[in-house]
């Protein structure tokens, strides 16, 4: 399969509209992220019940993320994205009408949980498109752009737009507006990617062979030590992102006196920063070394900025400007984990789809574990206990990184996390 080399600062121009589709779709998906837990609580449910809804959603997303990479290679990424797009729209409507609309906790869990299966099929299948249409040595920057447009959608537009629409049309009206964005993103993807090619060697596999390839996404975890360690680091990567979206609205709004709109704008500043930092770290990692960037900037930076995101607002109180500082720091350093998306297929070049599935599973487990940790710790240690738990896990990731060895294209020697052996070939 020929690879199109046309790019702009690492952005593959032949996939431009695919990137735009991700941004638009994730805008709709991101509307709820920073206010839904607070809204569920406002309907009469406890903070633990609100957090559990996110936990269940994260579990469903993790299961879907696990299969997305392999399924995308078996039936094509385009078909997988279409399935995810349709599922999301259908179950979002059911969630709004019968779950939130009736304040029925059982139906909230049912439809929100099933909807959690949808977005990973759409979102992560595009990674397969990128990996197979971009040269390996350029994959880090291309994936940096992927996470940049993801941030544009789920974080920036997905937070700023609700901050203006909630005062006008309320939470439910805003959630209905989300449907329009996701529908538009799905349509753009289906049109723009219909002629994009990916390897078809798995399309004619027997059902047994397809199942074997699917199961490889699990077996790689114990047959490839580097994949296993990388998976742990990727899980830890976005704990603060998904966890803070659940616990921090309660602290900022209920405890510190921020309005919902103010909190959403703080949260949007975090994601706005990641637009640029995703691209920056993706490009820098190709020069400095993937794992070196992950360890020294991702792990260390996230440990410190997670603590700052709690302590600075606690110290300064209802001070919007001071709340922005740790939000920006989080946005800078969470993106330093971007090279991990390039690490996984590099560790298993003959089974890139399965490796990407493990990466996606790890991302999904992060989505699940972040609120799960909150559910367990909040009743006993309040918000600070959750923050310290996340910080500790970033320290653990820092310790793990030197044990991950990956051959990085463009580097002649096997690279360890410190990057000391890496030389430009």
Structural commentary:
The chain has 425 residues and is mainly alpha-helical. It has a single domain (7-403), classed as Growth Hormone, Chain: A (Up-down Bundle). The protein is built from 15 helices and 2 strands. The protein has helices at residues 16-30, 36-42, 47-75, 77-100, 105-115, 118-133, 139-192, 207-223, 225-237, 239-255, 260-288, 290-316, 320-334, 340-347, 352-400; strands at 7-8, 11-12. A two-stranded antiparallel ribbon has the order 1-2. A hairpin with a 2-residue loop joins strand 1 (7-8) and strand 2 (11-12). Helix 3 crosses helix 15 and helix 7 packs across helix 11 (260-288). The protein is globular, with a radius of gyration of 20 Å. Residues 412-425 have low confidence and may be disordered.
Biggest beta sheet attributes: 2 strands, antiparallel
Cα-to-Cα separation, first versus last residue: 25 Å
SS-derived structural category: mainly alpha
Query: From the coordinates shown, what is the CATH architecture?
Result: Up-down Bundle
Number of domain units: 1
Could you list the spans in which at least 5 consecutive residues all have pLDDT below 50? 412-425
Number of strands: 2
Which word captures the global form? Answer: globular
Strand residue content? under 5%
Q: Fill in the CATH topology.
A: Growth Hormone, Chain: A
The level of helicity is: over 70%
What is the assigned CATH homologous superfamily?
Answer: MFS general substrate transporter like domains
| Mean model confidence by pLDDT | 87
Integer-rounded radius of gyration = 20 Å
Strand order of the largest sheet: 1-2
CATH class call:
Mainly Alpha
- SS element count, helices: 15
Taken in chain order, the helices and strands follow as EEHHHHHHHHHHHHHHH
Subunit organisation of the chains: single chain
